[in-house]
Amino acid sequence: PHNYLSRFDGQRWQATLRPAVNGLLHPVITSIVSTADDAIWLASLGGVNRFDGQTWQQFTTLDGLPAHEVYQLLPAGENVWAVTSGGLAQFNAARQSWQSFASVGEWADYTSVRLATDGSNILWAGSGKELHRYDGQRWQIVPVEPPNPAIEVRAFAVDEDGRLLLSAHLETPGSEQHFLAEFEGQRWTWHEIAVPSIGQFEPFSRLWLGPDSRLWASNGNSLWHFNLSAGNFTQPSQYPELVRGITDLTFLPNDKPVAVTRTARAPLLLEADGTISLEQPLASNGAFAIHATANG
Length: 296
Hints:
The protein is mainly beta. It is built from no helices and 26 strands. The strands form 7 sheets. Strands 3-4-5-6 form a 4-stranded antiparallel sheet, with no helix packed on it. A 4-stranded antiparallel sheet has the order 7-8-9-10, with no helix packed on it. The radius of gyration is 19 Å and the shape is globular.
């Protein structure tokens, strides 16, 4: 029962066939993406599966992945990148194998490493204050320059123009500060975020950029968004309904976000006035990875 995927056609979920004779490489799917050739890629804790509409392929360490556990996939132009427990890797379509970039980065825990790409297909990889940028030829370290060295970077995102955005947090005895920083290639600008003063406010630990230039931010307990196109970096709007434990967020062609969480058994369509449950696609007690293709 773990080896099924489900596709939503706008009205109902439809289970797909088993991906292979022996099923997926691992029942835990961590990331789903599609590429320009309409192929679907799935990362799991046992490797990577690819489906081109007719045939399933499986990729493991025998095909060049640095490790079996794959935490994220990201298309960048004609390439597909992966974060594994052993380092980064890039898929070589001509050779049908993966090239390891395990020497890039000194991250202690790859489960927290995130990938992002901009409109020029520049790849960004980072966790905490360690950020790297790859232009297709060489890797560069992106220095993070917080106004206080004690500030902890929690998450990052990159927009189409290559602007880097960071969420960060500073805790001192008796006070807390939350920041949204932006880097446009030359200098950092740090904005202190106005958050509710009642009770403890958890730091923003996940960021997603929507097609409408809104930046969505989750702190585990609630969901917020910044209207960046209006220059709003300091006063986010809270989503009207509590959406806890978000594990992934994707956007439909009409710009509406859909979330999967650790608490809801079905994906949630985030309408302006509240969530709509998109039925229960699969019988499972765990969270899902979710992805919307260009045609919805």
